[in-house]
Amino acid sequence: MGKITYEDKENLDTNPSIPEKNKVTAENMNEIKEGINELDLQLSGIYVKIIEDENE
Q1: Whole-prediction pTM value?
Q2: Do 33 and 8 contact (CB within 8 A), yes or no?
């Protein structure tokens, strides 16, 4: 697994006539990025622990 490395996003279209539930916002994309990167960090730690245990 790898980290998501794009820069944080900013909203380009803030058209208020489009309901929020029908938009993918910068906040949504940045939240997904943070979640994936946190999972990557946790899984990397687990992988290192497994390798260490195998080498003992």
Answers
A1: 0.68
A2: yes
